[in-house]
Amino acid sequence: MINTLKLFAKEEGDSQELSFRKLLILLIASMCSACGIVWSALYVYVFGIGLIAFLPLVFVGVVGSSIVIAHYSKNYKILVYAQLTCIMWVTAFIQWTIGSMDQSGLVISWAFLGPLGAVIFLSIRQSVFWMLMFLFILVVSAVFEPALLGYKSYVSNGVRTLFYIMNIGTSLTVVFAASAWFMNSIQQEKKRSDSLLLDILPAEVAEELKVKGYSDAKQFDEVTVLFTDFKGFTTHAENLSAHDLVKEINECFSAFDNILHKHNIEKIKTVGDAYLAASGLPVANPNHAKDTVNAAIEIRNFMLNRRKENPDSFEVRIGIHSGHVVAGIVGVKKFAYDIWGDTVNTAARMEQNSEAGKINISETTYGLVKDKFNCEYRGEIEAKNKGKLKMYFVG
Fold first, then answer.
1. How far apart are CA 97 and CA 51, in angstroms?
2. Among residues 22, 259, 304, 395, which one has the fewest Cβ atoms lying within 10 Å of its Cβ?
3. Residue 291: pLDDT band with limits 50, 70, 90
4. What whole-number distance in Å separates Cα of residue 189 and Cα of residue 22?
């Protein structure tokens, strides 16, 4: 049934929230309509054919028609207003026709679905109107009940008990089912939003942001920073269509993401064809340099193998430097976790002075990994705004 309603409710261009709301109102309308048919049959059995038995079918007919109209007009609010209006006024007329709250088994309890539905499908502000309408119906019912009792026939105690069970039990079941589904959908949305947040920020920073509403900038003294970019990117960009260019970059960077995740390294950002990552933050890592070099080797090998399969693929340059950085969140909209400091600048110089298919590391990083990797000393090389720096290629 749910899948059928999904297909019926779904329209091209609907947002996820709108699709959910349309499906939920269709589900509630279907449940209430089914109850209306059962109630009509029950009233025929108890009271015979007449107005009491006819009123639930009025609800079914109006709501059913509004479903069709809403579907073809692509305006689901038609169904919302029809459903809320009918659930309140039809139940009120049923109660008045039977004669009292007690005689009807508190059938008016169904009317509370009106303001509740308004909260879910309209807005808090609009729901105030529907709540006032419900209170009006309730007051009118209470005031005129003595007069109604004067000429309405009584039902037996057994039937009255059945009415109570059916009205209170079923109406609250509808409320429970709708609320449970609504809360489950909210929880699923929260999981998706948390997942998206974790794609943007490190887990520890994301949690701090959720708890405090902001995240403090921090200094990390033992960090290794990795920079990559693609040799001849501008030339490649001129020879590829926009679609193919983005596809190529995405496939490469997605592979980088997976490699870094395996080595517990934080991706910081991408700028054009440049890729920045760091190990040792926001959680300290005594093996930050080793893990970063291992990740760099995997990135280099991935790109070399990719180029063997497709000679037109990018060639990657990699630079690594270790030191201290400051890290934190910048911005209030589209915020980002970023790092600053001379360590970042030096890592960028290592990358700029690297070669295609090579991993160029600084003297500081070399001191941390020289016993773990074969490294080739390149001598002192002039780096922009840094003077001459000792550099090493990782074998």
1. 8
2. 395
3. very high
4. 16
222 with 189, same domain: the answer is no
pLDDT band at residue 316 under the 50/70/90 scheme: very high
Tell me the C-alpha to C-alpha distance, in Å, between residue 197 and each of 136, 186, 280, 340.
46, 16, 20, 21
Tokens coding 114: 């009106």
41 and 160 fall within a common domain: yes
Q: Tell me whether strands 315-330 and 358-362 are parallel, antiparallel or unpaired.
A: parallel
pTM over 0.70: no
pLDDT tens for residues 331-362? 667 777 889 999 999 999 999 999 999 999 99
Residues 326 and 306 both lie in one domain: yes
Amino acid at 240: L
Residue 78 has pLDDT above 70, yes or no: yes
Domain limits for position 40 = 2-198
Total number of domains in the chain: 2
Q: Enter the tokens of residue 202.
A: 């490190």
Do 170 and 307 lie in a common domain? no
H or E stretch at 287: none
Same domain flag for 191 and 212: no
The span from the CA of 281 to the CA of 278, in Å, is 7
